[in-house]
Amino acid sequence: MSREPLNKSIIENSILHTTIPENIVFKVINLANELRRHGVNVGISEVITALKMFETYIKITGGNVHDYNTLYMILRTVFVKREREEKVFDSIVSKLYTENVVKDLIKQTTQTLKTLGLKYNDKVYSRRKILQGKTREERRSKLEAYTTLKKLGIIYRDEHGREKVVSRNQAEEIIRRVLSKIHTKSLSELAQKVWEDRLGRIPSYKIREYADIISVQPISIETLEKLPTHKLLEIAKVLEKTSNKSLPHGILDEIIKRLEAGTISESTLYNDLIDILMKYERLDPKTITLILLNHPKAVCKLLKLSSNTLATLKNILPQLPIDKQAEIVKRLTSLEKLVSPSDVREILKSISPYAFKGIGSKGISKLSSMENLLVKSLSSLARAYEYSIEAVKSGNIGYTNLAFREYEKAINLYREYERVKCKQGSSVPDYKFLKHLEYNFNILRAIVEPSLNGDSVILPNRILLSSGGVDYVTTIRELSILYDNVVDERVRNEILLIASRIAHKLRDKLKSHIVTFRKEVTLRRTHRIALRRTLYNLIRYHTCILYKSRRREGKVILVVDVSGSMRDYAEWAILASSAFSYIVSHLILFSHNVTVYDKSVLKNPRNITKILFNLKFYGWTDIVKALEESEKVARENKINRIIVVSDLKQTVRRSERIEDVVSRFTKRKLKLLFIVPPVHDNKTALTLRNLGVKVVTLKDAKILPRKLLSLIT
């Protein structure tokens, strides 16, 4: 049913001070009138609403007033109210605007061909000749013109492999077909969108044929996110041979994001990836860590190419899962020329006892004969335990026989080691290293024997508590590995009990520091005199009596990053929260998820042990989400101090940045403090310091409890 046209003067009076150009306003009114003729109920109020929405959007985003894609979406949203009206709207829009846009784009196409000295239906005999120019700017403009036409398919390659220009009618058809999906008035923008859409359909082996197009204009982030990793690597290889060295970095950034997310599963890609990262000097400690986390077999190539690999390996190896540790150690033993004996010892000291299963029967030739005997015995014992677990899971007696054979081999090697040790006496080389290996052997033996015999033997406390120079946190970590691998429930409970005792012992040790920090000397009379300070002051300065008083500590929320890179610091912070539970009201643990524990949980060392045993130190880091949760807890419990232990690496994409959340904290008078490891996001740390937030760098995780206490009190 046809309706009367709208009154233009009423609409113009309603938007007198608009920033929208007059020609766009008239086009919108004409579209509304055309819709009314086809029975769509569009009134003056809808036209005014649509124009004001478009104006507001342009002001907020700072976009272009001639952004017809956005205008089209807003008009469609406001004008179309029923499903049947959608087709009417689309057909009218295409009739009104497509023809004008096509004419305009054809003019641009003709001008672009003229820049190259070409016309419709021409043959391109020599690409080099048409791209020649007297100046760099001229050559650049010609190359952009050529790539624009090639992206649209206006210059194409025929069946004989020769390049040709399409006819004018064919060019109009191409542009009309593209405009049915994309609305734009710029030929270069239209060509880029068409090319990016087409890029996803081009096979990887044909990417090299489009090197001239790829090297001219950067690919948008949205398109890079959609492309598979193997295609991104092919594009990076193509760009490697071009003069433009800035374009590949955007592609490498996208690949590194995928490494962080752990989405690159194809093992065949890692060799090419390492070569490209090395070529563009992007093989830093962070990237090496991500590659090893995703593909530990790449350690051989990394050691050959990068000098940073060994140092990075020493830092991250204890945090890796057992299977990945075993794989890396297995590869290292085959590359002894690249690793010194001292480095081998350091690496073997840092890995879990179970990871020794990766070492072959020949051992490590660079080590002494005694060390080799002990390493081989540990390797056999670790394999025996692996076979015994498989036997329990599958019920296959073959695994049981293999486990007994490896166990007997391990015991015989260990006896041989003890005989050699007795002969050498006090001249034993590197006693600390051997002591550490003996401790690992005792841990494994204590758990392997019950699993082989089918008994539920109580684990000997003297083995687990006399850790032979190993700190409390490392011992609890080893116990958590045992806890995960043991099948018998009674043995699991025994491990949990022993770990709780160790946690309690550490808690008592940390609490002993509190006495020092909680007392201060004052002139205000209290029930205790500071006798030593008083006598000193009376003799030296003739001043009055001094008294001891307890400091008043406010409550604090402790926020701890439990992603893979923060394992050492996180474990110490969690154990410290139990010791300082009188001050720490809530413990918030986060990686990509956030978990909150209140004071009642922190008081019990057994609960803390369970938390540590169940924690998986992996995943992305979402600091913004953790800060938002801490803000909520602080508001509900009326707490104004928050301490965050993190490396400040926000790996989860969010619209809000860390500094934005921190600024909000400052406005609400919440005191925020960050404790960071040596390897952290320096840029974020500097921004936080500029905002007035205290950022403390700790070189060693072991001093975190004492530092934490000094900051709290």
Short description:
The chain is an alpha/beta fold and 713 residues long. It contains 33 helices and eleven strands. Helices cover 60% and strands 7% of the residues.
Query: Helix- and strand-based class?
Result: alpha/beta
Characterize the overall form: globular
Discrete helix count: 33
Strand order of the largest sheet: 8-7-6-9-10-11
Instruction: Report the mean per-residue pLDDT as an integer.
Output: 79
Through-space gap between termini = 79 Å
Helix content: 55-70%
The largest pleated sheet is described as: 6 strands, mixed
- Quote the CATH topology of the domain at 556-712: Rossmann fold
Count of extended strands: 11
Q: Can you identify the CATH class of the domain at 556-712?
A: Alpha Beta
Which key phrases capture this entry?
713 residues; alpha/beta; six-stranded mixed β-sheet; three-stranded antiparallel β-sheet; 11 strands
Mind explaining what this structure looks like?
With 713 residues, this protein is α/β, with parallel strands linked by helices. It has a domain at 556-712: 3-Layer(aba) Sandwich (Rossmann fold), CATH 3.40.50. It is built from 33 helices and 11 strands. Strands 8-7-6-9-10-11 form a 6-stranded mixed sheet, with helices on both faces. Strands 1-3-2 form a 3-stranded antiparallel sheet. A two-stranded antiparallel sheet has the order 4-5. Helix 32 (682-690) links the parallel strand 10 (671-676) and strand 11 (694-697). Helix 20 (369-394) packs antiparallel against helix 21 and helix 30 runs parallel beside helix 31 (658-667). It is globular and about 100 Å long.
